Amino acid sequence: MNAAPLQDTPEVSEEHAKGVQALATLLQGYCATSEQPPAVVLDALLNVYMHTAYQHGRALECANVMVQIAGQVILQSALANQAAGLDPFASPTRH
């Protein structure tokens, strides 16, 4: 899933992109080997993401990207439900 590019942000340098990719690879490795439940790992990553966004004055920008990602996930879920013959807009059942 790729989020839409952010508006009014400077071009990302190749060095920056490589640094982001290296950090993402490290985080993926940690998440894959973590003994914590996936929900705990995801909550921790989201908390770090937003905390860092606040520290660097980019909270609104990061929140906008999170909303775009959530919209993509909801749309994919609705399409999958529709393809399975289910109501695409039914709320998931929680027990």
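(the above was protein one; protein two follows)
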Amino acid sequence: MARTDIHQPERVQQRDPLVRHWFTNVHEHGRGPCDLDEFLAAPRWIRTRCYRQPSAQAPNLCGCQLCTFQSYRKLAHRQERVA
């Protein structure tokens, strides 16, 4: 099995109805109408007024480079191994 099979990006988990309770909806309607549906429908991360963030009850959110889309972590680990 490929090592990416065990990973599930946070963006995918935000849309998954089975782990919906791991996330809290944040609404900032002071500047306009709710756009949470637009945030969830976008294929990439976009900045909207309303969004979903992990709650304290989220036990299995993976923080690796594959799941958080933070490529600098991979580079930092590679630099540590070389050093």
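Reviewer note on protein two: The first strand starts at residue 23 and ends at 26.
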